[in-house]
Design a protein that fits this description.
Keywords: 2Fe-2S, 4Fe-4S, Iron, Iron-sulfur, Metal-binding, NAD, Oxidoreductase, Quinone, Translocase. InterPro entries: 2Fe-2S_ferredoxin-like_sf, 2Fe-2S_ferredoxin-type, Mopterin_OxRdtase, Mopterin_OxRdtase_4Fe-4S_dom, NADH_UbQ_OxRdtase_75kDa_su_CS, NADH_UbQ_OxRdtase_ferredoxin, NADH_UbQ_OxRdtase_Gsu, NADH_UbQ_OxRdtase_Gsu_4Fe4S-bd. Its cofactor is [4Fe-4S] cluster; [2Fe-2S] cluster. This protein is of the alpha/beta class. The protein folds into five domains: 91 residues, Roll (Ubiquitin-like (UB roll)), CATH 3.10.20; 140 residues, 2-Layer Sandwich (Alpha-Beta Plaits), CATH 3.30.70; 286 residues, 3-Layer(aba) Sandwich (Rossmann fold), CATH 3.40.50; 128 residues, Dimethylsulfoxide Reductase, domain 2, CATH 3.40.228; 97 residues, Barwin-like endoglucanases (Beta Barrel). A seven-stranded mixed sheet has the order 15-14-25-24-23-16-17, sandwiched between helices. The chain has a six-stranded mixed β-barrel with strand order 29-33-30-32-31-34. It is globular, with a radius of gyration of 28 Å. About 5% of the residues have low confidence.
């Protein structure tokens, strides 16, 4: 529905503006920039700084008004260049600078500081104050990632509003009064938030800085390119910045369709692990009787190819298995999917171990993020946005504040449970009743419903998770589905996982049919001769150190990795892979949107892209993948007849996000990205100073394809929803005496090779804990802080923490190698509890 327009007059010019928007936004849209400090387009207006004062004509004449606080009205007359406005701006800046230190040459904000810019543009040019400026001890570490310089703070309230309104974690606030007013944390409580880095990005001065970037570079030293954060499948749009072939920082870009400029700290500070060369795999190596030996690429690839060929000849194609993390680029994923299915022809492939749901349910009637947040009802099914898709958690909070009605369906509560309309706990003893309760919570409003479906709880098996979701969707037949899976969109789209819909690839190759757990179990039994592991650690699948050693004795492990891990330490062949920021490419996010990945630095050592390694191996195995460049892969995907028909980087353009797939899903309006110099000063200032803001496209402009199939052409073989799902809800075997249902849920900072290589984030890794309701803890004789042993398929020890909000489950918080040993092949894992002495 088009916006209603009203007639206004800005500086004597008659114009039209959208009714109801803030005056400051209407002026921006008219090309009239009003200086501001406190205003941010994604937060509430507070009128704190008074820098945006303009003259507005009213019944009593002309008066100064804060433009961030007024809504546009019909007939409004506004003056932004009058003497009164200029005098007000001079006065505000003079008072702000009265106690502001003159340390621009050593301030991290120097060169991209809105206060600096506006002092030049709107200040008087000299000061009347000669008194000693105010001094505070500095810097104050308010968290391990953020430092506060109180002398520079101008009390704009941006950081405190973000913490309270956007993140819902009011851990910083104003303290003191008058001249002693300052930003402060609470006693003995750090600003320990998943989203703390955002306050440094939106700070209009150098009061809040990040520890990893502090004193690292100046804006004029940096180059940047548009890219996408790949720490989860949210697809947050970022500016990736570097200096002297080293990634320096990542800043959020305001994509209206995706992240609204926000980033989580796991993504924002992931550049530090890429730079940590000591933890990177830099050269190919082979293991002989004396240990690992660095070799040339040719020798390593020949060894890998001959090992795979010998296994195929002697034991058949299924003796070669491929396991991969789901964080590869789309092009890497497709290349390895084609190598496994068309060249090796093995069915032992899983490129998305965490996807424990039938992909046809996610692809049948997909919703975009904006559609989900604008629906009348949203159902969150087995998903925890804060720990799996953190920025989506922020967008959900904003949507709920704006009136979105949400029904949450989880085994145990999440951080959203307290603010949703209804929480429906999944009851293993009454699964059918659970589905009935979800449908009843929708109050008969079934016409505009989006179901966001995930695999949060690792204790639920693939079959049960799929059947529950399939039954729910059969009861809401017109519902759209948004994937809530943290990693796996690219693998699902190209058929690189057994969870992908049948026939998603039309090449005629062998389709995956063995899960990661099945592949590892077969390898431990000696049924797999060669196990190729891409950018993953086998201990992350629940193997113990002894099991990993045993597997390497029975199986030849070929590890392709960016980071060192237990798997690379024991593998027979290790091949270095390019890391994030070291290669071009693209990716898909949870709404199946095609997004760019920019190459900002050269690969460390001799690292190569995974698709190049796949192409070389295919050639040495006596076959060809049929592509030599990224453009070749894009052309093949575009002509595949599957989900990605019509794919091409020609859909990327400056200021626009990539398209949704399938291409028949047209968006009404692909909104322009916001590069507000005040909202994202670190991006805009670098662009303004002449540095390159590259598109980061998959295909260079000189290679623009002439094969576009045209927007609107739907894929020819996309499976229909629920095509492979059996209707009805299975019944679980009841608990026996001493058994309890397990809930195993991830946390954002669960250990991984990349996180362990990050010097600034690895301290955030915590040991898993067992959350137990007080009543159940009393029954088990477990006090808060006790140690206990859980016994399932395996066993592990952990600390007990009392939790008020759940009573059915023994809830383990933290997915680690130790906790994954509890999992077996049950539909829902059961465990026993043994008290230990710790």
């Amino acid at each position: 529905m088009p916006d209603e327009l009203v007639a206004v007059t800005f500086d004597g010019q008659p114009l039209q503006a959208r009714k109801g928007v803030k005056l400051i936004d209407a002026l921006d849209e008219a090309g009239i920039h009003v200086p501001r400090f406190c205003y941010h387009p994604r937060m509430s207006a507070v009128g704190m700084c008074r820098m945006c004062l303009v003259e507005v004509k009213g019944p009593r004449g002309v008066s100064l008004q804060p433009s961030c606080y007024l809504d546009v009205a019909d007939g409004m007359e506004v003056f932004t260049e009058s003497d009164a406005v200029k005098k007000a701006q001079h006065g505000v800046l003079e008072f702000l600078l009265a106690n502001h230190p003159l340390d621009c040459p050593v301030c991290d904000k120097g060169g991209e500081c809105p206060l600096q810019d506006q002092a030049f543009a709107h200040g008087s040019g000299e000061t009347r104050f000669v008194e000693e400026k105010r001094h505070y001890a500095k810097p104050i570490p308010i968290s391990r990632l953020i430092k506060l310089d109180r002398e520079r703070c101008i009390q704009c309230d941006r950081c405190t509003r973000f913490a309270d309104e956007v993140a819902g974690e009011p851990l910083i606030d104003f303290a003191g009064r008058g001249g002693t007013l300052r930003i402060s944390t609470f006693s003995n409580v750090d600003f320990d938030s998943y989203f703390s880095g955002n306050v440094a990005q939106i700070c209009p001065v150098g009061a809040l800085t990040t520890t990893p970037y502090r004193f690292k570079a100046r804006p004029w030293d940096l180059i940047q390119s548009a890219s996408t954060c790949t720490q989860c499948d949210m697809g947050c749009q970022v500016s990736l910045q570097s200096s002297q072939n080293e990634l320096t920082r990542m800043l959020g870009i305001d994509s209206d369709a995706i992240n609204h400029s926000w980033l989580c700290d796991r993504g924002r500070f992931s550049t530090s692990e890429v730079n940590n060369v000591e933890h990177r795999v830099t050269r190919p190596r082979l293991k002989d009787q004396d240990g690992p030996v660095e070799v040339s690429w040719t020798k390593a690839l020949r060894a890998a190819a001959s090992t795979m060929k010998r296994a195929i000849d002697e034991r058949g194609a299924s003796a070669v298995a491929v396991l991969s993390s789901a964080s590869l680029t789309l092009e890497d994923t497709y290349a390895w999917a084609k190598l496994a299915s068309d060249v090796v022809r093995t069915n032992a492939v899983d490129g998305a171990a965490d996807v424990r749901i039938d992909g046809s349910l996610l692809l049948g009637n997909p919703a975009s993020i904006n559609e989900a947040l604008a629906a009348r009802r949203l159902v969150l099914f087995n998903v925890d946005p804060k720990n799996e898709l953190p920025v989506l958690h922020l967008r959900l909070r904003a949507a709920i504040r704006a009136g979105l009605r949400v029904v949450e369906v989880n085994a145990v509560p999440t951080d959203l449970t307290s603010i949703v309309d209804r929480w429906v706990p999944i009851d293993p003893a009454n699964l059918a009743t659970t589905i009935d309760s979800v449908v009843a919570a929708l109050d008969g409003d079934l016409d505009d419903v989006v179901v966001m479906a995930g695999c949060r709880d690792r204790a639920l098996g693939t079959s049960l998770n799929t059947t529950l979701l399939g039954e729910l969707l059969s009861r809401i037949p017109r519902a759209k589905v948004l994937s809530g899976i943290a990693h796996g969109a690219s693998a699902l789209a190209v058929g690189f996982t057994p969870s992908a819909p049948r026939g998603i690839r039309s090449s005629g190759g062998v389709e995956p049919s063995m899960s990661a757990d099945s592949i590892v179990a077969a390898a431990l039994r000696g049924e797999v001769a060669v196990l190729v592991v891409l950018d993953s650690d086998l201990m992350g699948l629940g193997l113990t150190e002894d099991e990993l050693l045993s597997l390497n004795e029975r199986t030849t492990v070929i590890a392709l990795s960016s980071f060192e891990s237990a798997t690379t330490n024991h593998a027979a062949i290790v091949l270095p892979m390019s890391a994030y920021g070291e290669q071009q490419g693209s990716t898909l996010n949870i709404e199946w949107r095609h997004l760019r990945l920019g190459r900002q630095v050269e690969p460390v050592g001799q690292a190569r892209s995974a698709w190049m390694i796949a192409a070389e191996l295919a050639s040495m195995l006596g076959d060809e993948l049929g592509f030599l460049t990224l453009a070749d892969i894009t052309r093949e995907l575009a002509q595949s007849g599957g989900l990605l028909s019509g794919l091409g980087s020609h859909y990327f353009s400056d200021g626009l996000d990539g398209p949704l797939f399938p291409l028949s899903r047209r968006e009404e309006r692909r909104t322009q990205r916001v590069l507000d110099p005040m909202a994202t000063p670190g991006v805009a200032s670098i662009e303004r100073q002449g540095a390159n803001f590259a598109a980061g496209n998959v295909i260079e402009p000189s290679e623009s394809p002439g094969f576009a199939l045209g927007i609107g052409e739907a894929p020819k073989s996309l499976p229909s929803v629920r095509s492979s799902v059996t209707a009805g809800v299975m019944e679980l075997e009841p608990l026996t005496e001493g058994e309890y249902w397990l809930s195993l849920v991830p946390r954002l900072y669960d250990p991984s090779p990349g996180l362990l290589a990050n010097p600034f984030l690895k301290q955030a890794i915590r040991e898993p804990v067992l959350a137990v309701a007080p009543a159940l803890a009393k029954e088990l004789g477990l006090a808060d802080g006790d140690h206990c042993r859980l016994v399932g398929a395996g066993s592990t020890e952990m600390v007990v923490r009392h939790a008020k909000d759940q009573s059915l489950f023994l809830a383990v918080q933290g997915v680690t190698p130790a906790t994954q040993q509890l999992l077996g092949d049950q539909s829902w894992v059961k465990v026993r509890v043994e008290k230990s002495n710790g």
